[in-house]
Amino acid sequence: MDGQIHKGGLIAVSDGGPVFVKAIDGSGEFKDKHYIAGVLREAIKEIGHDKVVQVITDNANVMKSPKALIEVADTRFASVVIMLKRLKLIKRCLQAMAISEQWASYKEDDVGKAQKVKEMILSDLWWDRVDYILEFAVLIYDMTRLVDTDKPCLHLVYEMWDSMIEKVKAAIYRHEGLEDDEYNSFWSVVYDILIDRWTKNCTPLHCLAHSLNPKYYSTEWLLENSKLIPPHRDHEISLEMSKCLDRYFEDVNELNVVKFEFIAFSRGRFPLPAALTDRNKMAPARAEDLVYVYSNLRLLSMRNKEYINRDTKM
User: Fold this and answer.
1) Nearest C-alpha neighbor of 212 from the set 251, 241, 172, 253
2) Cα dihedral 57→59→62→63 (10° resolution)
3) Chain centroid, CA 127 distance in Å
4) Is 78 helix (H, G, I), strand (E, B) or coil?
């Protein structure tokens, strides 16, 4: 049986398939290797030592050395960006290595490749390209990393994507020395990729959560950018939010009450984003029960042939 810590939960895998064992409340804990080891020890005791043959942990940053080089692989999260960031951290060391006597006397394996690597490491143009890639790629990486944490952020995702796309464009246009209304073929490609990914990830639930966040009705947030408008005045957000409400409330009378309440909410006044601190919070015990039920229902549904073969299997 394999045990996996994933986003505050433990999943056990056996010949019969995966089962979500329990959610873990890690609030207030520094999730380093020592904390994870303690959680795993307790889980192994519950499951039984004789039933555990392997343990798989998350690849969070706190679990690794920041300067360790990793192998670029499709299964790793943003591995290319991480690799470039780490190469930049040890830039001077790499350059010193490339001009050392030991490197000059290198005669094994592929000598031509070694020479090419040396030329790249010592090239200012190559490092300029690395800086350019990181200038906009880190914006994407930081946003996706932020939503991959244990912190509740469903109510922030829609605006985070929107803001990230604008920042990426600004970084590219600043580097290319272009005005905001000028066409750039590279930005066009990047934009299409980002929009395609956001289209696949965005759900009506994101729009509903965005619409119920007092921050996006506050005067302070609206004054940050002249293009910003409150959620209830955004046609796309309103349409997707309505879809979400229609799915949740099958009873027409309940649906009408909810929509009436939302109209009253959206017309309210939220002078400061501090109104967020007044929202109700779900108790950890109830959250753990909901995660347990939801996760196991999904795991069970994956055994269904209809789930595997239908268009939405991914």
Assistant:
1) 241
2) 50
3) 27
4) coil
Q: Is the pLDDT of residue 67 over 70?
A: no
- 156-195 per-position pLDDT tens digit: 888 999 899 999 999 999 999 999 889 999 999 999 999 9
The residue whose two tokens read 């950018």 is: 225
Q: What average pLDDT does this structure show over 227-253?
A: 88
Supply φ then ψ for residue 123, to 5 degrees: -90, 120
Query: In angstroms, how far is CA 166 from the centroid of its own chain?
Result: 17
pLDDT at 314: 47
Q: Directed axis angle between helix 185-201 and helix 157-176, to 10°?
A: 170
Predicted local distance difference test score (pLDDT) of residue 11: 86
Q: ∠ at Cα 30 (86, 138), nearest 5°?
A: 30
Asked if residue 1 has pLDDT above 60, the reply is: no
Which residues, in sequence order, are CB contacts of 142 under 8 Å at separation 6+? none
Amino acid at 217: Y
Write b or e for each residue in 204-221: b if 16 or more Cβ atoms lie within 10 A of its Cβ, otherwise e: bbbbbbbbbbbbbbbeeb
**How high is the pLDDT of residue 191?**
94
- Is the pTM higher than 0.70? The answer reads no
- Secondary-structure breakdown of the chain: helix, strand, coil percentages, each rounded to the nearest 5: 60, 5, 30
Nearest to 191 by CA among 220, 216, 170, 160: 170
